[in-house]
Structure formats: structure tokens, C-alpha cells
Design goal:
The protein is mainly beta. It contains three helices and 24 strands.
Amino acid sequence: DEVNLKHAKNRIENCRFTDYGFKFTSWSLGAAWVEGCGNMMRHCEVSDSLEQGFEWHGVDNLIEYNRVHDVSYWWADAGGVYTGGGILASYGNVCRYNDIAASPGYVNGIYCDDESSGNRVYGNIVRNFGYRGLFTGGGRDNEYSNNIVVADEGWGIHLDLRGLAWKQLIAPTAVTGIARRVQAKWPPETSPVVKRYPRLGEWTKGDWATMLAPWHDSWHDNVVIGLRSSEVGTGANKMRPEFGLSSTNNLQLRIVGGPKAAAHWSLGGFECVDGTTNAPLDVGIVDLPVPEKYAN
């Protein structure tokens, strides 16, 4: 019960999901959904799918020790693992110690979409994605730490400020509507979820025009390996110091050089180590043969 903070204690554990998915549905559904409160998905393998890996929503759920690879071959704007899509509050949800290898194309590794907020994402390996490794789509109070991201094609870390840009332009009443939804579901004065996670109660306080800003998001001790590192995307010109964003002690390893994180990641907090074409950095990555079934 994500309203009253009652843990259901359901588990998806030691399962294998493969060869699933449909081309013609309204959304990339994934192999499993973890919702509600106090549930977990662990020690599972998800692979070989037209749709994305799996989703989590709700409060106090745990995603750990899973392997996701070769997913979302049909769907774009999806993730190896996904949360969001208009389901705003994910406070207390933890995504940790997973090996996420999505697929090429317009696919992300760990995707916190459309204002998903309150997630803790740490200790994951994210690789083989075509778009973004750690994608924050405008949410707040998200924490990313000690992740290793191998950015072969896409950007390692992405933040956008969609709540201050296109969301308000497309739906001018969206902000007040979201405020009412959050306040009705988790009343700041009485909600046990707000008592445990006080920042959830801040959604309806202050200036409504900045309510959907990425307040208090943080990135610490992450390693990004690859040509391109990290970017602040949509709405970067609306960034303000009072949002309390934090980025420290992150490392960018550019095997043969390339654009520095500072050129696109205005938050700072990245040390950059460069190789060159003649002397590339040896970071222990080796090329593996493409499995025959994917060769064409």
C-alpha cells in the first residue's frame, strides 16, 4: 500500500524472462512490473525482447542483482529498466547492483522518466545502450552514485528540465493538476510516506512555476567510460542554484579523447582522463563477437 506505507513483501526472484513482447501495443510494457510498496525483484535475467526490460513504481521497492540485456529491439524511448511515465513519486525505491545492457538505438539504460522522483540508483553497471545510460527526465530527489556507465554510442548521464520547458508549454494546467494529485494522495500533514520522506511534502510548497524542477538531484562517485560523457539537456538555460543539484567526484575516462563533460554538463563535478588515438586508455574493455542471431 503505497499510500499508507504498508509493505506487501511480494518477490520476483530467480526468474528468467526471454523472447517476449508485442509490436503493436500502446506502450513498451516489459517483462515485469514492480509496484505498490515494499516489493522486490532480484536475481532475475531478462533478455531477447521487443519490449523494454522491466518497470518499477510505487514506494520502498527494491530492484537488485538482475541482469538485463538485448531488450527493446522494437520500442524506442524506452529503457533496460524504467520508471516514470506520469507515475511521479518513487520515494524509497532502490535500484542497485544490476547489470543493464539494453540495446542500440533510441534506448536508455536506467530511465527515470517524466518527473519520476525519489529514486536511489547505485552500484549498477550500465552498458550497450544507444541513447542515455542514466537518464533523469525532469524528476527531483533522485540520487545516482557509484555506477559504472560504458557510453559506446550514447551519453553516459543525462538530466533535462522538461518540467520547466515543454511540459508547461504543452499542458499549461499540468503543474497545478500534479500538485493536486500529489497532495490528495500523500497529504503533507498526515501521510506516513511524507513523514518518512519529508521532501515529498515539498511538492506542493513554494512557487508553482518551479515545482517540476529537478530539485535536489545528485550524482556522486560515478564512472563514465566512452567518447561522450554527460549532458544537461532540455531546459538547461533554466537551471538555478536554488534547485540544490549536486555533482561531485565523478570520473570520465575518454579512451581516445573527445568532448569533455564540462562542455555539456554545467553542474561540474567531473574529472576527465584522456587517451589519444595513438595511445588509447586501457580500461580493460575487450570486443566480443556478435552472437549469430544478432549478426544481421
